[in-house]
């Protein structure tokens, strides 16, 4: 089975690492100026609208109804926040500290750990940058597998303490991701007997993951800049820890962009493209973006979780029937990442199928421009 790093290497995305010294820029350069930010009218669930249907649901994992609440949140929002998740605040603080320390290094030091052109791990601009004509006001560091080599470049003396935190974070988040998977599957009526590849202990031991550290420096002209452009994650689910600076927004159909307010100790969980496929379209993979701020630097840590790279993911048989035809063909994560690397936010439509009286056909083979494309 190919590792996640090999999968990414097989599907390179070419990003030109231009100027990453944000502190040296007193004005927003033309190359960072987004002209289509006319939809800045945003619902900030912190202060404008208080109705529950206008803010991302917050779910207490100790609530006996957690699975039901999560199901409702996934169906209506494709995203929710969790509290009482069992991850110690000290570990969340530690991983934020790794990100803050890393991004505070001088630019020439960070460039020692630059992501290679066909690699996934390391420092650099967001991989999605290649799909947009303008640059994003952010920098990232991706960890797949061991961070040892890169961390040794960044911190020759004390890399071990940073590695230890990452390993501990990975281990802890993997367990939480497995727990969330079952809560989400349970909300769809899918039981442990129904998912064979979850492993003998049904803990998704072979699931693959990446950790993405993000930094959004303060910006001289935030209204015309973009921290991270709109995208969906290619994962089953993503668990995000954000510091106390807002910036993350999710798109809610019929409402627009909604800010996900930082919640101390809380974690944001996004439905990703692969869970959308598994749920036969019942749970939308949430379109999200990040805006930036004039005075405060924002940090986030995303735990991107998916299946073993060569397991076939398809709409679950329990969610398919005469009145509910499968909306997607089966894909491995490996194959899906290749489709995403080529077609980005249109990738889902490339694995979509359509039922007709003549049976099923591959939507993309028949009608290249589909009205069914979500984005
Ligand atoms: O920084 C955030 O809040 C979101 C990050 C994100 O969407 C990602 O890393 O995929
Ligand atoms: Fe994301």
From TrEMBL:
What region holds the Fe2OG dioxygenase domain? Answer: 206-307
The species is Cicer arietinum
Name of the protein in question: gibberellin 3beta-dioxygenase
**InterPro entries of this UniProt entry?**
DIOX_N (IPR026992), IPNS-like_FE2OG_OXY (IPR044861), IPNS-like_sf (IPR027443), Iron_ascorbate_oxido_reductase (IPR050231), Oxoglu/Fe-dep_dioxygenase_dom (IPR005123)
Top-level taxonomic group: Eukaryota
Q: What class of enzyme is it?
A: oxidoreductase
User: Would the keyword tRNA processing turn up in this protein's UniProt record?
Assistant: no
Please give the family membership noted in the entry.
Answer: Belongs to the iron/ascorbate-dependent oxidoreductase family. GA3OX subfamily.
Its EC number(s): 1.14.11.15
Q: A Gene Ontology molecular-function term?
A: metal ion binding
Cofactor(s) needed by this chain: L-ascorbate
Output the GO biological process annotations, alphabetical, semicolon-separated. gibberellin biosynthetic process
The upper taxonomy is:
Eukaryota, Viridiplantae, Streptophyta, Embryophyta, Tracheophyta
């Amino acid at each position: 089975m190919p590792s996640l790093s090999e999968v990414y290497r097989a599907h390179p995305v070419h990003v030109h690492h231009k100027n990453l010294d944000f502190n040296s820029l007193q004005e927003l350069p033309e190359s960072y100026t987004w002209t289509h930010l006319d939809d800045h009218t945003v619902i900030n669930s912190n202060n404008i609208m208080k109705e529950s249907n206008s803010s991302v649901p917050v779910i207490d994992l100790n609530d006996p109804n957690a699975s039901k609440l999560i199901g409702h949140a996934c169906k209506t929002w494709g995203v929710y926040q969790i509290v009482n998740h069992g991850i110690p605040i000290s570990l969340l603080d530690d991983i934020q500290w790794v990100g803050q320390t890393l991004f505070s290094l001088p630019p020439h030091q960070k460039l020692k750990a630059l992501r290679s052109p066909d690699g996934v791990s390391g420092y650099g601009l967001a991989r999605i940058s290649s799909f947009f004509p303008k640059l994003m006001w952010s920098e990232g560091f991706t960890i797949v597998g061991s961070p040892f080599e890169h961390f040794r470049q960044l911190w020759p003396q004390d890399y071990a303490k940073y590695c230890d935190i990452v390993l501990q974070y990975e281990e802890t988040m993997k367990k939480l991701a497995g727990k969330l998977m079952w809560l989400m599957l349970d909300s769809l009526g899918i039981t442990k007997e129904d998912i064979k590849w979850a492993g003998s202990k049904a803990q998704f031991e072979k699931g693959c993951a990446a950790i993405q550290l993000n930094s959004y420096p303060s910006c001289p002209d935030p209204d015309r800049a973009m921290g991270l452009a709109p995208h969906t994650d290619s994962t089953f689910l993503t668990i995000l820890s954000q510091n106390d600076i807002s910036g993350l927004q999710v798109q809610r159909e019929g409402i627009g962009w909604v800010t996900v307010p930082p919640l101390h100790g809380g974690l944001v969980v996004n439905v990703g493209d692969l869970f959308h496929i598994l749920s036969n379209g019942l749970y939308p993979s949430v379109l999200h973006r990040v805006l930036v701020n004039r005075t405060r630097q924002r940090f986030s840590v995303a735990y991107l979780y998916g299946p073993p790279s060569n397991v076939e993911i398809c709409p679950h048989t329990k969610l398919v029937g005469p009145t509910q035809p499968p909306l997607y063909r089966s894909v491995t994560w490996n194959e899906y990442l290749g489709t995403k690397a080529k077609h980005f936010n249109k990738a889902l439509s490339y694995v979509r199928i359509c039922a007709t009286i003549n049976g099923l056909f591959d939507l993309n083979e028949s009608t290249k421009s589909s009205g069914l494309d979500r984005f």
